[in-house]
Amino acid sequence: MEGGDESSALVERIKQLDALLQQKNDDLHQAAEIGKLLLDNNSQLTAKIDEANAVATSKIEELEQEKFTLRRKLEAKEHMEQTYLDEIEMLKSTLSKQSESMRLKIEMQHDVEVQPLKSQIATLQSELDQCHLIEGQLRETVTRTELMLSDAQEQLQLRSKSLNETCSTELAELNEEISNLQTVKLTLTRELSERENRVAQLTLQVESLSEQLSKKQDEVEEIQCHSTANYNALLESREENQELKVELDIIKLEANNIKKKGNSLFGEVEDRRVEAERELVSMKVQHSALKKQHEMLRQQQHKLKMEVAGLLRMAGRRGDEQMTERLLQQLSQAQSETQSLQKKIHEYEERERLEPRLPQHLARGNGQAPDDGSMDYMKGILSRTQSEKATLKQELHTKTLVALAESDKVMVCEKRIYHLDHEVKQLKSNDFRLRLQIEELRMKYEPDSLKAEKQLRRKRNVEQIPLQQKPSAESTETGETAEKKAVLESNRHDDISGEDTATANDISKNQSAVSVEKRRSRPLATKRTSNMNVAPPGGGDADIQPELVKTKKRLVSDVEVTERNTLGGIGGHQAEQQIGVPKKRGAKGVEPNCKNIPVDCKVQ
């Protein structure tokens, strides 16, 4: 019953797997059809884009030609205008300098002439003030002397009346004093008249100097009028000069007009120049269009890189799912093995329980009592079989232990391979993401360095000139390998598609290596169960030992292949993995997995 249930479950599982496989195939065909339609649409869109680019470039070339001609005309006009403005500014500056110099000269002359007059006026004014002060002082002294004289006369009269007789001497003295005072008065009046005469002279001099100053001011005004007349004449001369220059430029243009000179060397040179300018404009337009296309392609490549990074992350998750499925399969196999072993143990227990009853059944079947000799013979056979059974059990136990140890080693190797594969995928995804970040930062901050590196890479890819000697087979092989290496290096550095294919090939190779490990680990488990279930007769050691040695060698070779495939993307085999080139057979005769090689490579 249990076997029937297991078979029905297996049949249902097989049906489910067939249905899933059919669904996957249908999805694959549908995806292929959709991809074909998308490729056709993409090709049509690219053709339309190319046509639109061609039309746009032609229109842009025409517009650029018109723009170039208009720019040339505008530049010529601006140049002429700038020259005229420069000349005007130069004339203005010269005129302003001349007027300033004339003004400074006039001011200097005026200052030179007016300064001594001002100094004379100041000195005369000071002298006049002094004279006025002296005159006032003299007048005060005269008034005081007159008062004193009147007082003295009154006193004299009084004294003369009272003391005519007694004061004769005093009267004489007073008369003398009066005479002295009169003389002083006369001198003072004389000095006062002289001062008045001096003041009159000074006033006359001041009036004459003021008249001279007014005359000088009139002369300055006349000079200013003369300078303004000169400035107006200079402006008129500038206008005339400008008109003459315009006429001269017109004459030069007429002289440079090649059409009026006939078929000459000037016309040929001008035609070549115009043609070269047109070609330059068209090349500039094409360069701008190619630059835009390059920018679009760069953005597409960046998007593809981001998608590849996402696929790498998805591939890591898919690897985890595959590992879980593999572990589940191993768990189911182990459970089935334990069930089968339990069944066999139950059968052995029943057989051991029935073995002691065999002689009685045999005796009853014969209808005779067993002899002592037959009993001894049967006991000897039984003892021999038991001893052989014990030895076989011991050998089976040792073989099972060896097989379990080998299976443990295989599991350890598989775990190591899985962890290495997972680490390699993580490193590749991190490396790819870091490359993307570095490229973005360099394109953002150092675009010139990227251009310089591309130029250096192009310079390094130097073509080797072959010699005239006949190359041998080894030299041809080395030349081909060198060319392949150069091509691989250029593809590695210049094309991002090479990196994408390399990562895809690495993922597929790792997955294929894991599937090979699964397929090769299954026979080992079945052999282990068969060895555990069936005890070989006498020659068990000779049959089991070569199989274990073969499985051990095969596992070691598989581990080496998987390690080489997983670690080849980091080491020196990265260039070969980028284009899917199969490796040569090694010393041990191990061939790598060639499932992911393109059809063209396989045919070659």
From TrEMBL:
Q: Does the keyword Coiled coil apply?
A: yes
User: What PANTHER family does this protein's entry cite?
Assistant: BICD FAMILY-LIKE CARGO ADAPTER (PTHR32123), PROTEIN SPINDLY (PTHR32123:SF9)
Q: Give me the stretches of Polar residues compositional bias.
A: 500-514
Question: Would you tell me the protein name for this molecule?
Answer: Uncharacterized protein
Is this entry keyworded Coiled coil? yes
In residue numbers, the region (Disordered) covers 452-521
Single GO BP term: establishment of mitotic spindle orientation
User: Keywords for this entry?
Assistant: Coiled coil
Q: Could you list the residue ranges forming a coiled coil in this record?
A: 14-80, 164-293, 324-351
Q: Which domain of life is it from?
A: Eukaryota
Question: What Gene Ontology terms describe what this protein does at the molecular function level?
Answer: kinetochore binding
Specify residue ranges for compositional bias: Basic and acidic residues. 481-496
Q: Which GO terms describe its cellular component?
A: outer kinetochore; spindle pole
